[in-house]
Fold this protein.
Amino acid sequence: MKAQIVFASMTGNNEDMAEILEEDLQDLGIDVESIDISFADASSFEEADLCIVVTYTYGEGVMTDELKDFYDQLLELDLTGKKFAVMGSGDKTYKDHYCENVYDFEKAFTKIGAIEAAKPVTIENAVEDDDIALIDQAAKEMAGSLNG
Ligand SMILES: Cc1cc2nc3c(=O)[nH]c(=O)nc-3n(C[C@H](O)[C@H](O)[C@H](O)COP(=O)(O)O)c2cc1C
């Protein structure tokens, strides 16, 4: 089984999340490739069983150019039957826009036929111990969905 993680990170928080998730999935016996969104092409998800986006949200939910480019590519795909998951770090001071781009990607994956393997994990700013436990749990759900 192969997982593809695409992460968007400016100050490192989402990159840290992606790294923790990558290690978790590897420990669960999954072959994982992780790539920065600025170098990624959404079509790489066509080769994966589990498609994952780990993303920041900046600018009150308005996507940055690198996010929007990838998002538009994603919407061109048909990922019917594949599993997906989304997660990200944001900041609750942005209220209704908290982790908004995480949910944008959740909707996009659903729209193109993918099946959610685990509920979105959203954390505030830097990764802390409690957050690691949430990521670990989500990784187990993702692995379980591939076996199910
Ligand atoms: C100018 C600016 C705008 C932001 N806008 C949002 C936002 O709309 N929603 C949100 O949840 N977080 C927002 N954040 C917080 C970041 O998403 C948060 O710090 C995140 O951990 C950054 O991830 P990164 O370290 O991977 O870049 C904003 C931060 C800055 C500096």
User: Anything to note?
Assistant: Residues 9-15, 56-61, 89-91, 94, 97-100, 125 surround flavin mononucleotide (CB under 6 Å). The chain has four helices and six strands. The first helix runs from residue 13 to 27.
